[in-house]
Design goal:
Elements lengths: L11 E9 L5 H11 L3 E6 L4 E6 L2 H13 L6 E9 L8 E3 L20 H7 L43 H8 L20 E5 L2 E4 H13 L4 E4 L4 E5 L4 H11 L8 E2 L9 H4 L2 E2 L2 H7 L6 E6 L15 E5 L4 H10 L3 E5 L11 H8 L5 E5 L11 E5 L2 E6 L7 E4 L8 E3 L9 E4 L2 E4 L9 H18 L5 E5 L5 H7 L5 E4 L1 H12 L6 E11 L5 E9 L5 E6 L2 E4 L8 H11 L11 H9 L4 E6 H13 L9 H9 L11 E3 L5 E3 L4 H5 L6 H24 L6 E5 L6 H13 L4 E2 L11 H24 L1
Parallel strand pairs: 2-5, 8-15, 10-13, 12-16, 19-22, 22-23, 24-31, 25-28, 26-30, 31-32
Antiparallel strand pairs: 1-3, 1-4, 2-3, 6-7, 6-15, 8-9, 9-14, 10-14, 11-12, 12-13, 16-17, 18-21, 19-20, 20-21, 24-25, 25-26, 27-28, 29-30
Helix pairs in contact: 5-9, 13-21, 14-16, 16-17, 16-19, 19-20
Length: 766
């Protein structure tokens, strides 16, 4: 590297770079770039920004500014927010200075990064110092979000602070020509985290721990393995007995189990392709740096246990994202089940003591390590719909999800989401941040993490909420918490939040016609909604259409007992229907007396009814199971039943589902055809509703929001039908379409309500 030259008099410039510029090797990159151009000065971290002082030739400084953005590290997302001429400091070298806190910090929290190809190759190199080391990393990979105590992002403010670097690691850390230059989680076998295998009262460390884990997995055992954001429960996916034991012990009889596959050969997806069919978009998403779980169609000849996803056509697959995962899969010689290490519905467990206590009844053994996980992050989940990856669950690698807003929040807001698939969000200035998936709030641990993450995100981003936004349903744990804080509370309707989340992701659309279809949520009229259509924009949405309502017996039990939805449809039409399920007679009697019955307009419950009638499903063990099985068996058909649309006495357009009942109960027709007709009929009905409204109202695009549109068959058919009519249609991508995106939608709606209120107040004064 050539020595830097002294600056010419007057040629000094100060740059401020925002965006994702910490924990991605941006300072080392700026250091090397400055030296290559013969510039003097310094670079340092602020709280979320990088500050650069440059001295040298004017032409080289201008070139530096251009290439700083154009040639940034692959995982960086820099924005040059300030570039001003300043007085010379008579610099003679270019240095990396200690971090400082900014007076007005623009904090960006980096997500956890996958093990890069260089580190993976080095780990497999017998001659390398870190051969086989399960915690290797560099500036382009390794843990971030899960180990950061506070910002600026320096080792002393991470859970790696307790690991003092050995002389060799310290030399790499200080060498600007080394790819580990200022890699904060830097470590090696001599000075870094270590593995420990525990079984009963015995313990093994290091490579012996890994070897014991592999032997246990080959023997058909279940091992709880500590990873980046928490524990996985692992077993051999080709061993049906092991998979059945995992299901029985975890009390998870049907919910799909994700499988992690090793990278092999020139095509890193070779082993994945042996199990599932990958289209080009699925392949790109699977190999993405975030390493999400991708739902893909299972191959008929896959050498894996049928019990991995009973009754479903798809399997959740993903690649290893940590060095430890690479070691395990390489040594095991094949894929491994890698499902969340938690009691079902709770947040993933991160602590060794708690893991042994809570997962002891499930796991035969434990593979721990001593790098603390400061906050949990479950694996993200994606599904390809309409040729694009759609996030179903945000987590490790994708969250916190930071979004820029083309509006400004009048005051900092905290949004607390819903009750299931809970995530929280912060909104301030022109920024919004959506947390990783927390889980359901039924459990004490879920509610504890919910509260801890609320404090954690505000502290890390240095934002103090002045008001709380919550779901309009007062019974949600999140809503109860919000109303007990002593801050102003802004309630937002469940389905309005779904519509607003979509609008917040696609801000170029000014006026929407959005179909918010999901299971159940509190309606603004006191009923239960789930098949709603909204016209307008955030802060000004108007409900214009819905599904024909029906009286649903059994309250919350209906979500896990699809026969109740089927019975409700027949009873609503005055038709005979006698389910074999226990309690059916009592349910009918209670309905007739108006007890334990709710009037609802839910498309999600309509799917449950169809699954009960077509597949005979009377009960389910997890949310959405009936609809997922119905989608899996649905045949490709363009046959459909036209569903009438009429206006009720309140002027609301209602789509009538009654004509579907005869098709759904036609025992002479194949179940696959009946399921296919059901999907096609709903897609055609949605497009007919949009066409009817287009003749009376104006809108720029049709939106699809709510958990029902996780259904690829339905969503893609709707997109195709609308495209054929020349109607733009949009579906969420980075924000989950299900309740995991509610908190962001709550922020968007509340921000626009604030803005409208401010305008109204100003007009009153005038």
């Amino acid at each position: 590297m050539r020595p830097a030259r002294p600056a010419e008099r007057g040629s000094a410039r100060r740059l401020v770079v925002a965006g994702r510029v910490q924990a991605v090797g941006f300072r080392p990159f700026a250091y090397r770039l400055a030296h290559a151009m013969g510039l003097c000065g310094w670079v340092r971290n602020g709280a979320g920004q990088v500050h650069i002082h440059l001295e040298g030739e004017i032409e080289q400084i201008a070139r530096f500014e251009r290439e700083l953005i154009a040639r940034a590290p692959p995982l960086a997302r820099p924005r040059l927010v300030e570039a001003v001429d300043v007085a010379s400091e008579d610099a003679r070298h270019f240095l990396i200075l200690p971090s400082e806190n900014d007076a007005d910090p623009q904090v960006h929290l980096p997500p956890d990064l996958y093990c890069c190809d260089d580190c993976a190759a080095e780990m497999r190199d017998p001659g390398a110092r870190r051969h086989g080391y399960a915690f290797t990393n560099c500036t382009q990979c390794g843990p971030r979000y899960t180990i950061i105590e506070s910002l600026p992002y320096d080792r002393s403010q991470t859970s790696m602070a307790a690991f003092e670097m050995c002389p060799l690691c310290a030399a790499e850390y200080a060498d600007p020509l080394d790819r580990r230059f200022h890699a904060e989680p830097l470590a090696c076998p001599a000075c870094g985290p270590r593995l420990e295998y525990r079984r009963d009262s015995s313990a093994l460390c290091g490579d012996r721990a890994l070897a014991a884990t592999v032997l246990a997995l080959r023997a058909g055992d279940i091992v709880a393995v500590k990873g980046v954001g928490g524990y996985h429960l692992m077993c051999d996916p080709a061993n049906a007995a092991a998979v059945r034991r995992l299901r029985a012990r975890k009390h998870r009889p049907d919910k799909p189990l994700a499988v992690m596959f090793p990278e092999r050969g020139s095509d890193r997806l070779e082993s994945v392709r042996a199990a599932v069919e990958l289209d080009p978009c699925e392949a790109r998403t699977c190999a993405d740096a975030t390493r999400p779980i991708v739902l893909a169609r299972r191959r008929a000849d896959a050498d894996l246990a049928e019990e991995l996803a009973p009754g479903l056509a798809e399997l959740g697959v993903f690649l290893p994202y940590s060095p430890l995962h690479h070691r395990l899969l390489d040594d095991f010689g094949g894929p491994l089940v890698a499902t969340s290490g938690n009691p079902s519905g709770e947040p993933v467990i991160t602590d060794a003591t708690e893991a042994e206590r809570r997962l002891g009844p499930v796991a035969d053994a434990f593979l721990h390590h001593d790098r603390p996980i400061l906050r949990p992050a479950d694996d993200p989940v994606c599904r390809i719909v309409g040729g694009r990856a759609r996030t179903l669950r945000n987590g490790r690698g994708t969250a916190p999800l930071e979004l820029d807003c083309p509006w400004r929040f009048r005051r900092p807001l905290l949004a607390v989401g819903g009750h299931q698939k809970c995530a929280i969000a912060l909104g301030w200035q022109d920024r919004a941040v959506l947390s990783p998936h927390i889980g359901d709030l039924d459990s004490l641990r879920g509610r504890e993490l919910f509260e801890r993450l609320i404090g954690d995100l505000q502290r890390l981003y240095r934002v103090e909420a002045a008001a709380i936004v919550c779901d309009a349903h007062r019974g949600y744990a999140s809503s109860r918490w919000a109303r007990g804080r002593g801050l102003p509370v802004v309630p937002v309707g469940h389905h309005v939040a779904h519509a607003a989340a979509l609008a917040g992701e696609y801000t170029q659309v000014r006026r929407w016609l959005t179909f918010a279809w999901d299971g159940l949520g509190a309606g603004l009229d006191g009923e239960l909604w789930g098949g709603e259509v909204f016209l307008g924009s955030p802060g000004r949405f108007r409900r214009v259409a819905s599904l024909r309502p029906f009286h649903l017996p059994g309250g919350d039990r209906a979500a896990r007992e699809p026969w109740r939805s089927a019975a409700a449809l027949f009873w609503e039409c005055g038709r005979d229907f006698s389910p074999r399920a226990a309690g059916a007679t009592l349910a009918r009697q209670a309905r007739d007396r108006g007890l334990l019955t709710s009037r609802c307009s839910s498309v999600g419950r309509l799917f449950d009814a169809a699954a009960a009638l077509v597949l005979g499903i009377e009960s389910t063990s997890f949310e959405g199971q009936a609809a997922m099985r119905l989608e899996s068996v649905a045949a490709d058909t363009r046959d459909f039943v036209p569903l009438p649309i009429s206006r009720d006495r309140n002027g609301l357009w209602r789509t009538d589902w009654e004509p579907l009942l005869d098709v759904l109960t036609d025992a002479d027709r194949d179940p696959g055809w009946r399921a296919g007709v059901f999907h096609e009929s709903l897609a055609q009905a949605l497009c007919a509703q949009a066409t009817a409204l287009a003749s009376r109202e104006t809108f720029d695009a049709v939106g699809l929001a709510g958990g029902v549109f996780q259904n690829r068959r339905l969503a893609e058919r709707v997109l195709a039908l609308l495209a054929a009519q020349g109607v733009p249609a949009l579906l969420p991508a980075s924000v989950p379409v299900n309740d995991g995106g509610l908190a962001f939608g709550q922020l968007v709606e509340a921000a626009h309500l604030q803005a409208d209120a401010a305008v109204a107040a100003a007009e009153e004064i005038m």
